[in-house]
Amino acid sequence: MEITEPIESKNFLQEIIENDIAEGKHDGRVLTRFPPEPNGYLHIGHAKSICINFGLAKQYNGQTNLRFDDTNPVTEDTEYVESIKEDIKWLGFDWANEYYASDYFDTLYDYATQLIGKGLAYVDDLTAEQIAELKGTPTEPGKNSPHRDRSVEENLDLFRRMKDGEFPEGSKVLRAKIDMASPNMHMRDPLLYRIKYAHHHRTGDKWCIYPMYDFAHGQSDSIETITHSICTLEFIPHRPLYDWCIEKLEIFPSRQYEFARLNMNYTVMSKRKLLQLVNENHVSGWDDPRMPTLSGMRRRGYPPKSIVEFCDKIGVAKRENIIDIGLLEFCVREDLNKTATRVMVVMDPVKLVITNYEGTGEHLSAENNPEDQSAGHRNISFGKVIYIEREDFMLDPPKGYFRLSPGNKVRLKYAYIIEYENHITDSEGRITEIHVKYYPDSKSGEDTSSIKVKTALHWVPESAINAEIRLYDRLFVVENPNSDKDTDFKEFINKDSMVVNTRAMLEPILKDADFGKSYQFFRLGYFCLDKDSSSEKLVFNKTVGLKDSWAKILQK
RNA sequence: UGGUCUAUGGUGUAACGGUAGCACAACUGAUUUUGGUUCAGUUAGUUGAGGUUCGAAUCCUUGUAGACCAACCA
Length: 556
Known about the structure:
This protein is of the alpha/beta class and 556 residues long.
């Protein structure tokens, strides 16, 4: 018999790197970087970038720097620096060096003067509006600024005085002298430096001029001798400028490569929009469990491994994509199924009385995880009165209903087989008690009754405890909240994205639930303890539900 | 409409001139003390039109569609 090895397919970045290594480029060295701007929290899209940058380096015996792209002091803050570092570590990655673009401000200033010296940059006095006007449009060439041909000496002097704070904010900029007629808008004398009298989170008030992205990012890559600078597709038009700066400055030739960013349905991914959700209180914060942020997913109970697995499954390519959020949920379930401790919780309890049960103090042994025998067993107290899920009993069930109904016996998980006898209703006809008889010889593990049942129901004993359970659904009701240009994305927010259940009854052992641990509420889904819990009140988050094929049958 | 990038099942992603494969989703069935898990199987795809070639998802020509580019943002 022939055994065929599964073929490991490579993505285009792996091919590029393998070619570079084969050609002996940079002596086969691989150094990548993850360059977040500290102006927001990391989301699942950043996780893709993190996995690519750190993953590639790991795969090819290289390293990855963490570099904060902090060139705009107005929007940046150390709060974000801390959260970003925490999230990367949580995903399981370690950076070789922690750098900041602001570490290079002196070098960058020097680079700028070099460019001026070569006649390749000039100080422009035009206003932002005038510059925009002369820039032309994608279909029309731009026009030269009247200040374009200042002498090297004058430019050097003006630029130094910009640095020294002699000019008001917005009055002057430094621009590269390239080509105002270029079909690439980014090559039409791009801005290199602007004046900002703003306090920087690292350099304080040392500087009043700050480099633009295009004059900081590539140069930072070069200073660190990054070999593969991997970014998203929208930076493709910046690449000629990236290369231009390296060429004119004659510095280390880092190379930029672009991949398609992650998009996911039923959510938004732009930092600006996420910030709006937070600031306008549509969610409780950056770590709201409904947010696509890593801190939100952590709080929701998504294991970091499942996020890394997800990033691996979605692949890397240059084509626009919208990933089904169901794939992420699949990865979460796949991990949690193997690791989560099983417990019983009844979300919508109804009293069940076992009329022929006369035992007292009986304890039943329950398996903690059928997927992992080493997880062991625990005891649950059983009695004449217990609670089951209201939807697990029907007087007049539809075809295909396996659960308790007149004439349809079921097993109580870890306990006995029961059979319906009677029920009690209140004045509105709502069932308040279900009376059943049980088969003493059907005890779980020692069943000699030879009764066949179709399913086992979860239940809780009378000693069950109370908690608040937060059930989450997708944050938006449409697949792409950005699709309609005339409608604000917030119009599509799912009003029922969080539903709070306070009447649930939980197996008593959950009063000792641990933070950071996942539980499978039997037949319901995966849950975890929320940070809002206190000694008086437990709060659980629903991470994700179990696949529910009965719900699917009912839909038909 | 100037430039750039991209088009493979419902969604992603492979196949580098030689059998269109994998994952998720969907659907069957088996197993099951979770209508979960697991297992077996099914459905379903190369953007249109030409061309080169014994042979094209792949190369060429030409359409079409989508994305990105005119912040003193990154």
